[in-house]
Amino acid sequence: MNSPRRRALLALVLALVLPLVLPAPPALAAPLTLEGAMAALAAEPGGTASFTEEKAIPQLDIPLPSSGTLSWTPPDRLEKHTTFPEEEILRADGDRLLFAQPGRGIRRELSLDQSPEIRPLVESVRATLAGDLPVLRRYFEIDFRPEGEAGRWRMVLTPLSARLRVAVQGIEITGQGGGLRHVVTRASEGVTRLAITPRP
Fold first, then answer.
1. CATH superfamily, with its number, for domain 4-198
2. Where are the domains of the chain?
3. What's the pLDDT at 6?
């Protein structure tokens, strides 16, 4: 019997049961933002990665390769340890910057607070790893863009200082979630491409 009462009861049963048997539509992922990427970076505990680097200098026909390790210890210790073609250590720890070439007996330290042209270059990577957006904005104009899926992103840092822009026109950083993958520095002396491979 197909009475109005029976039809109403059937509609009620369907309303109760269908949500249990039909999959819910997939939730739309919120678009990745600069603030979201910085938060993911800030949540990382630090670690070590391998790197390969190529410096393309206009006066040379082929780029200069190098490789080694990068280590990051929050909140402000970053070390780039080059092992090929020769050992070189560049370490930023708080306000201090160390440059050393053990094979040549070279070791120099300086204060970043007293080096206004060097500090922004250090902070371009260090403040990015720390997810410290206020520090990045102190030194750079930031153009941030999500790239596809899986949390990939790209940002271009343009120095706010006209004096620094003479030497460095821009720094392009790509990453995924809370990790950096590539850093490309475009400078008057050439282009440096740094590729980063996280270690387990």
1. Lipoprotein localisation LolA/LolB/LppX (2.50.20.10)
2. 4-198
3. 46
Distance CA 120, CA 7 (A): 72
- Comparing 17-21, 50-54, 135-139, 159-163, the range with the smallest average pLDDT is 17-21
Q: In this structure, what DSSP letter does residue 116 have? A: T
Tokens representing 152 are: 């990939």
Choose among 132, 102, 101, 99: nearest CA to 115. Answer: 99
CA atoms of 58 and 55, how far apart (whole Å): 10
* Residue 13 confidence (pLDDT) above 60: no
Q: Which amino acid is at 32?
A: L
Residue 126 β-bridge partners? none
Angle at 162 between CA 158 and CA 163, to 5 degrees: 115
What is the Cα–Cα distance from 27 to 25, expressed in whole angstroms?
A: 6
